[in-house]
Amino acid sequence: MNSPSMSDGAPVVLWRWRGGEPGALARARTVLAHALSGLGYDGEAVSDAVLAVSELVANAVEHAVGPYELRLHRTASDVICEVVDHDPRIPEIPPFGVGALLLPVEEGQSGGPGALCALLSERGRGLPIVHELARGAWGLRRSRVSKAAWIALPLPVDGEGRSGE
After folding, report:
1. Residue extents of the structural domains in the chain
2. Quick one: fold of 12-91+126-154?
3. How confident is the model at residue 19 (pLDDT cuts 50, 70, 90)?
4. Is 0.70 surpassed by the pTM of this model?
5. Which of 8, 72, 91, 92 has the fewest CB within 10 Å, making it most exposed?
6. Which UniProt keywords are present, listed alphabetically (predicted)?
7. DSSP 163
8. Contact present, 15 and 27 (Cβ < 8 Å)
9. Strand, coil or helix: what is 92?
């Protein structure tokens, strides 16, 4: 796969898939990692983006209808990674702040078994994880027939301090 050409700002579709496709999450991670590496991203930037987008893909597959698309497009200052599904409804997003994943329990309050179960729950942590990994640069946008969940990655900087590409 060649790295995507995004010089005009138009979205580049990296991959399309339908609901129930085996290995969709793994394929999305691989395709995105390869594309970001081709655009000059490396290390933690790639791993954080891949994990955040994995959460968006998992949410789309679980809560919305396909077909789905994984897209990239470039703005003046960012590369936007989008996961598009065909359910225009925006989910209710509970409030959470920076660092909300690991808030300490108030002194003298253990929270009991209910608090432990909530902490260990496998549900409801995806968007706070996306928020942390994307450093707050994420969101949802809808059209008449679809929605896109996105994260923004600052353009990579080359060794001389200039934006790449």
Report:
1. 12-91+126-154
2. Heat Shock Protein 90 (3.30.565)
3. confident
4. yes
5. 92
6. ATP-binding, Kinase, Nucleotide-binding, Serine/threonine-protein kinase, Transferase
7. B
8. yes
9. coil
